[in-house]
Design a protein that fits this description.
The complex is a heterotrimer of chains A (120), B (288) and C (283). Chain A has helices at 51-61, 74-82, 95-104, and strands spanning 2-7, 25-30, 35-40, 66-69, 86-89, 108-109. Chain A is an alpha/beta fold and 120 residues long. Chain A has a single domain (2-109), classed as Dinitrogenase iron-molybdenum cofactor biosynthesis domain (Nucleotidyltransferase, domain 5). Chain A has a 6-stranded mixed sheet with strand order 3-2-1-4-5-6, sandwiched between helices. Chain A contains 3 helices and 6 strands, in the order E-E-E-H-E-H-E-H-E. The N and C termini of chain B lie close together (9 Å). Chain B contains 11 helices and 9 strands. With 288 residues, chain B is of the alpha/beta class. Chain C is of the alpha/beta class. Chain C has 2 domains: 2-57 and 128-280, 3-Layer(aba) Sandwich (Rossmann fold), CATH 3.40.50.300; 59-120, Alpha-Beta Plaits. Chain C is built from 11 helices and 11 strands. In chain C, strands 3-6-7-2-8-1-9-10-11 form a 9-stranded mixed sheet, with helices on both faces. A two-stranded antiparallel sheet of chain C has the order 4-5. In chain C, helix 8 (227-234) links the parallel strand 10 and strand 11 (239-243). The N and C termini of chain C lie close together (8 Å). Classes of the chains: A alpha/beta (120), B alpha/beta (288), C alpha/beta (283). Chains B and C meet through helix 4, helix 6, helix 7 and helix 9 of B and helix 4, helix 6, helix 7 and helix 9 of C.
């Protein structure tokens, strides 16, 4: 199973990025073999609109079944849910810590968006 | 980190003049001017325009005259009247939807990135400031507002600054929505006129729509004391608090001409004193 | 003749000038319609007290996807430049607040699975006040985009009227452009302060792009400084109106009383505007 983590850098020591739509990259971690890749999200830093929607599409395309991030707006939430991606929230963690918490089942699962959209 | 957004509904009630004063009074803050259509705060705060960033947003269509066979498909499909009978694109009308380019049988139309404005990151004697200039007639003002807020947040986070003070735009449309979405504190500046009272209700509805309870400040109260009473009644009815009542003072304009806020120009004026008192109340409410 | 009253800065007096100009022209027995295009905060009606004769809901188009016809080809998501329609696994999501109503997705869909439905963006109300026709747009609170509603209001510009007066919103971006389109003349209202001058220059940039003849009106002309006059002289922009700062004007305005009803001595100011228009525009 693959999980996506919004990250400020491209390795497991980097911190979890609180932003979902405007994060610069996602770490896609494969739990089955403990390998990972980094997927660039830079196009969303300048996207016309709907960064949250596009970020959601990026990780759905990467076949992630869950995402760990800090804040998810209403459009991102809707898109992730339609793509059958579970959303987990965390703050002040490194990517590795977030993955460990996920494995231990100690991350909070989001039942809705926890922030309003940036609207555009 | 707290954000305080100052909006008004009706234009011209005195938001920018009040923000300029608050910039003098609050200690540790980042300033953001989200009135990207017609930014004025920089005229008082004198930023150094240290960094200028390009704001690219949306696309515009370009027809290659050499490849175009003038079949008229683009004109037929364009919903924004942006293509003339002689196949010239009206750049202002062009919404950047790309439909013409998609369906052109000759591939004669390009969608090109649009330079829509600039963002300025500056230092001022009152702290860091972010403001912007939207290109004439551009749309996407909401997105430029979001950029300004994003840069202000980054600056505040980098330097552990607890407050972002935002000068908002007039109205209730997309730049205002982009200014208040996700904010925790809004101050509405109103004035005792029938027009402003009418607009107050709409801007309060907008704040409610985004689940934010605003504060209200009544500016230029001596224009019409009975209208002040009507506003007080209306606020009670809408269950929102009035935290400032500022008298009309010609010195505010004189201060502006001297590129100063009223609290710098004449600290002893009644208007300055009321603004200082309101600022203290805001400090208490925001816990800063 | 379509005359738009605009500014860069809010609160300079556009609505005051628009309503009084329309009222003045009607008194001169001209046929006049007043269009209130400040659809976010329309205020003309507060001064003219029209009897509203009709209210129409204004809508803009959004896609409606029939999933039973959808073959998940993804073309709708590809064509959309605004991210308003997205193909996600087994479904297609529509985000109405991002949609610009271009119709691309419905045209490109190979199976006709996308039709267009409508989302309400506001109302257009029409009415009369002493024979003066008034049309106003009122944007639904929370609806971000005003240009489509402004477009609806402008459709009511009656080409048989001698004058169509347009009260524009403040600012310089797309709602203002939409209001200014097809104008024969633009009157930019400013105040002689640093903010007023700064925003006037921005408005002049916009008007120059549209290549429509214009002039400046200075409200509260006795405050501030002389830099607005210097700027207009330097740029060869005619100043065709000057109204002094007057407590009585402010009081009447605050009560919602039309300037020319409270202080009829100001009528000569509007005679001046009409004379200028007759001079510079072919009738």
């Amino acid at each position: 199973m693959k999980i996506a983590i919004s990250a400020t850098g491209n390795d497991l020591c980097s911190t979890l990025d609180a932003r979902f739509g405007r994060t610069s990259q996602f770490i896609i971690y494969d739990l089955d073999n403990d390998s990972y890749i980094s997927v660039d999200n830079e196009q969303n830093l300048t996207s016309a609109q709907g960064a949250g929607i596009q970020s959601a599409q990026t990780i759905i395309k990467a076949e992630a079944e869950a995402v760990i991030t800090g804040n998810v707006g209403p459009n991102a939430f809707r898109t992730l849910t339609a793509g059958n991606v579970d959303i987990y929230l965390g703050t002040g963690l490194t990517v590795q810590e977030a993955i460990d918490k996920f494995k231990n089942g100690t991350l909070q699962k989001a039942s809705g968006n926890n922030v309003e959209g940036h609207w555009m | 980190m707290k954000e305080l957004i100052i909006i008004s509904g009706k234009g011209g009630t005195g938001k920018t003049s009040i923000v300029a004063s608050l910039a003098n009074i609050f200690d540790n803050k980042v300033l953001a001017d989200c009135d990207v259509d017609a930014a004025d705060l920089h005229l008082i705060l004198n930023p150094d325009f240290k960094v200028k960033k390009e704001f690219w947003s949306g696309k515009s269509a370009y027809i290659n005259k050499d490849t175009c066979i003038q079949c008229g498909k683009c004109v037929e499909l364009c919903r924004f009247d942006a293509i003339s009978a002689n196949f010239a694109i009206d750049k202002i009308a062009c919404e950047g939807c790309g439909v013409c380019a998609y369906f052109c049988p000759q591939d004669a139309i390009d969608m090109r990135e649009n330079l829509a404005g600039h963002v300025f990151l500056s230092n001022t004697v009152h702290g860091s400031m972010v403001h912007a200039k939207l290109g004439a007639g551009e749309d996407n003002s909401g997105k430029l507002v979001t950029e300004v807020r994003k840069h202000a947040k980054q600056k505040a986070e980098e330097n552990n600054i607890p407050l972002i003070l935002v000068d908002g735009p007039p109205g209730i449309g997309c730049p205002v929505i982009a200014s208040i979405t996700g904010a925790d504190n809004i101050l509405i500046v109103t004035e005792p006129t029938l027009s402003s009272l009418h607009d107050l209700e709409r801007v309060v509805n907008l704040a409610n729509y985004f689940h934010i309870k605003p504060f209200v400040c009544i500016n230029k109260i001596d224009i019409n004391p009975s209208k002040v009473s009507e506003i007080v009644e209306k606020c009670a009815e809408l269950e929102i608090e009035i935290i400032g009542k500022i008298p009309y003072d010609e010195d505010i304009t004189k201060a502006q001409v001297k590129k100063q806020s009223i609290v710098e120009f004449n600290q002893e004026s009644q208007a300055a004193k009321e603004i200082i008192s309101m600022a203290n109340e805001l400090k208490r409410r925001l816990n800063i | 003749m379509q005359i738009s009253i605009a500014s860069g800065k809010g609160g300079t007096g556009k609505t005051t000038i628009a309503t009084n100009l329309a009222y003045f022209l009607k008194k001169q027995n001209k046929t006049v319609t007043l269009l209130d295009c400040d659809v976010e905060e329309p205020n003309c009606h507060l001064f003219l007290h029209p009897t509203w004769t009709s209210t129409e809901k204004s809508t803009s188009k959004i896609p409606l996807v029939n999933m039973s016809k959808c073959i998940k080809c993804g073309r709708c998501g590809d064509i959309c430049h605004f991210g308003a329609i997205a193909n996600i696994k087994d479904t297609v999501l529509v985000f109405p607040e991002l949609c610009h109503g271009c119709g691309g997705c419905s045209i490109v869909c190979p199976t006709g699975a996308i039709t267009e439905s409508e989302k309400e963006i506001g109302d257009v109300q029409t009415g009369t006040a002493d024979g003066l026709e008034i049309v106003q747009g009122l944007l639904k609170v929370g609806e971000p985009m005003s240009p489509p509603l402004i477009r609806s209001v402008k459709k009511y510009a009656n080409t048989d009227d001698e004058f169509v007066i347009v009260d524009c919103p403040p600012g310089t971006s797309c709602p203002v452009i939409e209001s200014l389109k097809n104008s024969d003349f633009i009157l930019l209202i400013t105040e002689p302060t640093p903010f007023g001058l700064n925003d006037l220059k921005l408005a002049v940039d916009v008007v120059n792009e549209l290549k429509i003849p214009f002039a400046v009106g200075i409200n509260r002309s006795t405050i501030g400084d002389s830099t607005v006059w210097d700027y207009c002289k330097e740029q060869n922009i005619p100043i065709i109106l000057e109204i002094p700062h007057d407590r009585h004007i402010a009081r009447a305005y605050s009560e919602g009383i039309l300037l020319l009803k409270a202080l009829p001595q100001y009528e000569e100011k509007f005679t001046g505007i009409l004379e200028h228009l007759q001079e510079v525009l072919p009738s």
